[in-house]
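Entry 14. Ran structure prediction on the chain below.
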Amino acid sequence: MTNLLHIDTSIRYEGSVTREISSQFADVWRTVNPGGGYAYRDLHASPIPHHDGTDQGISADLIAEVDAADVILIGAPMYNFSIPSTLKAWIDRVATSEHFAREDGTFAWGGKRVVVVTARGGSYKPGTPREGFDFQEPYLRAVLSMVGLDHDLQFVHAELTLADVVPQMHQFRELAVESRADAHRVVKELASA
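Output, structure tokens:
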């Protein structure tokens, strides 16, 4: 049986692009894998306490969810060029030295598939003026690689989500619609694979 761990981190519910797109992935995945297991964690509704040197079993429960998952789906909006602090708190609990590379170079979590759905108010693609401001994908790639969750890692970006809201970005509204539609198309394909 295949298991999906679905993590949402957006502070928004209504109008959240990452919740919308990650939900579509989960729906398609569950249709394609009717006997598969599904675990859902909303880090905004139930935030993980920041690591303070105590554990209280919190880390063990989160690690058990990752252990049980074959596919990990993370909805991660870009906040201030990076990730939500709730996602960082989750990472601090699961990306521990016990999950670093073993002596033979393999990882306990090396065979898992990870899909990260992002929403970004602007565009951070190569060649754009804000390319160097993307601390979201490079950070997630780096931290996930420490624990072997980068071997089958895909990012799906919905960009220019503020084009309707910020008057200076109105000229990019069509590109925003295209980016969002493309993100929906890609998650359908990834969830069906």
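DSSP finds five helices and five strands in the chain. Will compare against last week's run tomorrow.
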